[in-house]
Amino acid sequence: MEQEKTVNRTKSIVKVSLYGIGVNLILVAFKAVVGFLANSIAVVLDAVNNLSDALSSIITIIGTKIAGKGADKKHPYGHGRVEYITSSIIAVIMLAAGVTALKESIEKIITPSETDFKVYSVIIIAGAVVAKVFLGIYFRKKGKQFNSTSLVSSGTDALFDAVLSVATLVSAVIAMVWGYNIEGFLGVGISVFILKAGIEVMREALNELIGVRIDAELAEGIKNKIASFEEIHGAYDLVLHTYGPGQLIGAVHVEIDDDLTAKQIDTLTRRITADVYREFGVVLTVGIYASNTSDDISKAIRLAAEEKIREFPQILQMHGFYMEREAKVVSLDIIVDFQEKDPKAICAKLCADLQEKFPEYRFYINLDRDFSD
After folding, report:
1. Is residue 68 located within the same domain as residue 98?
2. In Å, how far are 292, 320, 327, 364 from 301, measured between CA atoms?
3. pLDDT score of 173
4. Which domain holds residue 79?
5. What pLDDT, on a 0 to 100 scale, did the predictor assign at position 284?
6. Same structural domain for residues 175 and 99?
7. 97, 196, 210, 302 from 94: Cα distances, Å
8. For residue range 44-62, what is the model confidence (pLDDT) as tens digits?
């Protein structure tokens, strides 16, 4: 079922990309003819830019095809992250187009040349603007529908191309009516916008490859679903890894009573993983924190630990508390704010304070990361 969804998604993205290639190649042909006949470097660059858009769509098709391949022995998590690499390549193309346009625009300012626009030239350029706007909106809509960063990136690029074409159209009208050539100045402004868009697309793709914080709404939804099980006292340490759009694998710790049997725990974790996958499409591994339920001493130490932690504003949360009465060992996890420069020192100070308050016990404090809260 999951493989079928992936295949359908791949086919849909390829279909959208093929539409983009066709539209861009038609625009290349018309703009190239207009550019050479009117002696307009701006229109010629616009045609080259459309050619790069067609190349971006080809890259999107190749990347989507590779990303749609299933898992194999060498890539057990599939090939989904290839889509982020595809977005990075498209960003490079956008940046190259922006730099080229900036260079040519500056040269046009320094050494302006006479242009010869006709009415039909203006009509063709205006038609290209409309086509690129519709193509950009279409790409972005389909990109969000199919969760494809490559299509969204191509849509953003197309909309900026439409702005570039508007600038070319304005300069053509001004050249025809008043005889002034402002292509260079308009080109510089548009080049900056193209470069900015390229940088943003690159940043987004690299963030996905490096790893970013879990979407807050998704994290809250998963934790609330887990907390809805009556046996669960809390869900902690939620970590999600993305292996391509819509492919999430992760882990979470849940706190349960320490008197549950292995059979009960197994049944509970299976129910949790099944429900989370069904509702959120996330493959989740569930770890266990045992909670002391019938020990007054552990409750007293826990309350003391919570009170002591309130003295440390850098500590965001305590969880995973457990006392082994016979061994006189107390374990707990804390989450320290990312802005704290020396979290290990905070952890050591807390451990020393608790050790001093309860000298007969040994304290082990694990320093957790704030991945989702």
Report:
1. yes
2. 11, 13, 15, 13
3. 81
4. 2-210
5. 92
6. yes
7. 5, 9, 21, 56
8. 777 777 787 788 778 878 8
